[in-house]
Design brief:
Layout: H1 2-29, H2 35-67, H3 71-103, H4 115-140, H5 145-162, H6 164-179, E1 187-190, E2 195-202, E3 206-210, E4 216-220, E5 238-246, H7 254-266, E6 278-284, E7 289-297, H8 302-322, H9 339-351
Antiparallel strand pairs: 1-2, 2-3, 3-4, 5-7, 6-7
Helix pairs in contact: 1-2, 2-3, 3-4, 7-8
Length: about 350
C-alpha cells in the first residue's frame, strides 16, 4: 500500500508540475507570431497530463498485481497500450484542429492559408489518424489487420452499390477541394438552379449556403459537378450599363451631352478607365433619343458599387439639365384635324 501511495503521489506531483511548465511555455508562445508553437502547446495540455495519470495508475496497478494477483498484469499492460494509442491519437487530432484555426486566422492570428484548403487537409488528416488508430487497436486486441483489410475490400464493393449517392457527394466534395471553384465566404449562384448566397461550410456530403434572405440552403456536393456555377466574389470589376433617353426636342444637344458624360466618366476617381468605357448615341426610341453608358468600377463591393453608380447617374442628370435638356418619358401626341377647313370643303361640295 505504501508503494501504491508513493506512485500515486509522484503521479500527482508530476501532473501538477507539468501543468505549471506548460502554462509558462504557453505564455511565452503567445508572444511570438509563429502559429505552430501555439497550436502545439494548446494541443499538448490535456493529453500530456492524461498520459501521466495513465502511466502512474497503470504502474500502481502493476504493483498491486505483483503483490496480489499476477493475472492482472497482462490486462494492465494491454489497457495501458490501448490508452497510450488513444491519447496520442487525441493529441494529433487536437494539434491538427489547432493548426487549422491558427493558419486560417480564426484565433486572432494572421491568415496563412485558405480556409477551404485548410479544412479539407485537416479532415483528411483526422480521418487518416482515426483509421490508423482503429487498426492499431484491433492489432493490439489480437485481430489480424490483413483479414480486416481483405474484408474491407470485399465489403467496399457492396457498400459502393448501396451508397452510390453518398459516394457521389463525397467525390463531389473532393472535386470542390481540388478545383476550388469557390471557398467559404464566397458569393455563388447558379443559372441552372435556384442557388444563390454565401458559402458558409463545405462538408464531405453537403455544402451549406446562406441565402440573402438569411435561410440556410443545403446542397449535395454531387450537384456542383452537374451545373454551371458563377462566383461573383472573384469578379475583377463591376459593370455599369445603363440607357438614358432625352426628348426629341433636344436632338441638337445630344452631341454635347454625350461628350460631357464621357469626359465625366474618364475623370471619375472610382471608374476603372483601363477597362472598356463607352458613351454613345444608341437609337431613335418611340418616345426618346437614347444613349448608353458602358463602364466598370474599380470596386467589387456591392454596397460601394451602388454608391458609385448612384453618383454617376446623378451626374448625368446634372449634365442633361446643364444643357437645358430633359429626360424623356413615354408620351403620345394626338393630332386633331382643322374642323373649319372640313366644314368649308363640305359646303363647297354641297353647292356643287
Amino acid at each position: 500500500m505504501l508503494f501504491v501511495f508513493g506512485v500515486v503521489l509522484l503521479t500527482l506531483l508530476a501532473a501538477f508540475f507539468t501543468k505549471i511548465f506548460l502554462n509558462k511555455i504557453a505564455d511565452k508562445s503567445t508572444k511570438t507570431k509563429n502559429p505552430w508553437d501555439d497550436a502545439l502547446i494548446s494541443a499538448l495540455h490535456l493529453p500530456c497530463r492524461l498520459l501521466i495519470w495513465l502511466i502512474g495508475i497503470s504502474l500502481a496497478a502493476d504493483l498491486v498485481a505483483f503483490y496480489a494477483d499476477a493475472s492482472i498484469a497482462k490486462l494492465t499492460t494491454q489497457l495501458r497500450s490501448l490508452g497510450v494509442i488513444v491519447i496520442i491519437s487525441w493529441f494529433l487530432i487536437r494539434l491538427i484542429k489547432a493548426l487549422e484555426l491558427n493558419l486560417t486566422g480564426v484565433n486572432d492570428s494572421p491568415q496563412v492559408v485558405d480556409a477551404t484548403t485548410a479544412s479539407a487537409i485537416g479532415k483528411l488528416l483526422r480521418a487518416a489518424i482515426i483509421i490508423t488508430a482503429i487498426l492499431i487497436v484491433m492489432q493490439n486486441l489480437g485481430y489480424s489487420i490483413s483479414g480486416v483489410l481483405a474484408f474491407g475490400g470485399i465489403g467496399g464493393i457492396a457498400v459502393g452499390f448501396a451508397a452510390k449517392d453518398l459516394l457521389a457527394n463525397f467525390f463531389g466534395g473532393l472535386t470542390i477541394y481540388l478545383d476550388r471553384p469557390f471557398k467559404v465566404g464566397d458569393w455563388v449562384r447558379s443559372p441552372d438552379k435556384e442557388i444563390e448566397g454565401t458559402v458558409e461550410d463545405i462538408g464531405w456530403r453537403l455544402t451549406r449556403i446562406r441565402t440573402f434572405d438569411k435561410r440556410p440552403l443545403y446542397v449535395p456536393n454531387a450537384t456542383f459537378t452537374q451545373i454551371s456555377l458563377e462566383n461573383p466574389s472573384r469578379m475583377l470589376n463591376r459593370r455599369i450599363y445603363e440607357t438614358i433617353g432625352i426628348r426629341y426636342d433636344d436632338v441638337d444637344k445630344m452631341q454635347n451631352i454625350v461628350s460631357d458624360t464621357r469626359e465625366m466618366l474618364q475623370n471619375h476617381p472610382d471608374i476603372d478607365t483601363t477597362q472598356t468605357l463607352m458613351v454613345s448615341f444608341n437609337q431613335f426610341a418611340p418616345s426618346s433619343l437614347d444613349f448608353f453608358i458602358y463602364t466598370f468600377t474599380k470596386t467589387t463591393q456591392w454596397e460601394e458599387f451602388h454608391r458609385i453608380k448612384e453618383g454617376v447617374l446623378l451626374s448625368i442628370i446634372g449634365i442633361i439639365n446643364k444643357h437645358d435638356a430633359e429626360c424623356a418619358f413615354p408620351t403620345s401626341t394626338v393630332h386633331l384635324a382643322n374642323y373649319s377647313s372640313i366644314e368649308t370643303n363640305s359646303m363647297a361640295n354641297n353647292n356643287e
